[in-house]
Amino acid sequence: MRIANYWETEEPETLNTGRNVLRHFPEAERLQVSTPDFVGRDGQTHTGKTVGVDLEPIHEKIAAGGDEAQAVVDFFAHVVGIEQEAKEE
């Protein structure tokens, strides 16, 4: 018997930016980033091309504290532009 994949058993928190779809699966500690969903020739909606990120090691680094934890936080702040917004205010 096959074990179900996390995306088949867990309902994600979803953010659709119009150009990307982010799906967070908190129980599985996974983040998926996809191109937009699309309707196929079969008339059904399909998920666009997707990359999954394992958040467990990231959570572990943050929980451990210290310089590595701050580096992780700083990286994500940089990626989404939070530090730039704070400087502009």
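Second entry:
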Amino acid sequence: MGAVLDFEQPFRERMLGNVIGDMGKMFQQAGDIAEEYQQLMRQYPNEAIDKLPEFIDRIRDINPERAYESLAGGPCEKWIGPVLNIFGEVYPELNRESRKKGLKLCINFLDDLRYDYAQNKLEVIQEPWLATDIVITRPIYWCGYKEYCDFADTHQKWKDFSKGIGSVKSAFWLAMGVVQHKHTSLEVRQNFYERYPVLMERTKDAIAAMAAVYGGRKAVKENISVDEGIDKWLNGVDSLLYNDIRTKIEEKKWILLPD
């Protein structure tokens, strides 16, 4: 598991930090390429979006003939994840057309992988909007958040829970686990909401998107009303968030690409 991004700092104040550890020459090369991409994203975001596939390929090509991928089950998420997360950092700030362009490029990359290898990449995406737009467009890439629910089950006190959140793979999937009231205590949820307000706002946007899209599909499949479908999908989510989520459903901030 890796570090949680600090969602309470402006994008330009965030640094790549310890996303990639010192695990040999290939990891260092991947880190150097990710840093180069971050600089391009800061200076010329539109160009950086267009060049996302190029930077992903450069990282994959660090490994001669991509031999490592055949052994590891696809591209290493510790190499590719930082580039996806650099794009994810700016994703909510982009206009819808730029978001659509970048989202399509991410999905094109994932579509070339086996579905379970693609899921591994989703596990390390930090930004709620990006992860959600991917999984509502391609539900097969849903990676889930069971590990965070399991952790919460055995850490009901905030003092204990908070010690473990600095070493998670994804801030977003952690937040998705936190809002599951059957697994987390009220103490944990309230403390988490108070300490990570920006992350929680975007996570509520994400839940609203999933509830609307997945709930709508459930309504069609089960021949029930859309509201009933949404309520079924929200079952398990902290009821303290319902009003905000319902408001965010009306805002429709998500992007659902056509098949």
